[in-house]
């Protein structure tokens, strides 16, 4: 997943918040991390599916003698 960096940054921010007594912010960042994981995972699945469809289309074209 090419967007793992955003989750890493959010985790770093949560660590900072916890270390500096910003409990509500840390709690909010937990929720934000959850959303980021869900959205980046969904996006990665859509990209993988689209790539798989494109590959399948290319293979079908080759078996029919066209490129």
What does this protein structure show overall?
The chain is mostly helical and 67 residues long. The protein has one domain. It has two helices and no strands. Helix 1 packs antiparallel against helix 2 (23-63). The longest helix is centred in the middle third of the chain and has 41 residues, at 23-63. The mean pLDDT is 84.
Task: Describe the structure using short key phrases.
rod-shaped
Shape: rod-shaped
* Spans where pLDDT lies below 50 across 5 or more residues: none
Number of helices: 2
Euclidean distance between termini CA atoms: 30 Å
Number of domains: 1
Mean pLDDT over the residues: 84
Secondary-structure element sequence?
Answer: HH
**Approximately how much beta-strand content do the residues carry?**
under 5%
Helix/strand-derived class?
mainly alpha
Q: The biggest beta sheet, please?
A: none
Rounded to the nearest angstrom, the radius of gyration is: 20 Å
Q: Tell me the number of strands.
A: 0
Helix content: over 70%
Task: Report a brief summary of the structure.
With 67 residues, the protein is mostly helical. Helices cover 85% and strands 0% of the residues. It has helices spanning 4-19, 23-63.
Write the layout of secondary structure elements.
Elements: H1 4-19, H2 23-63
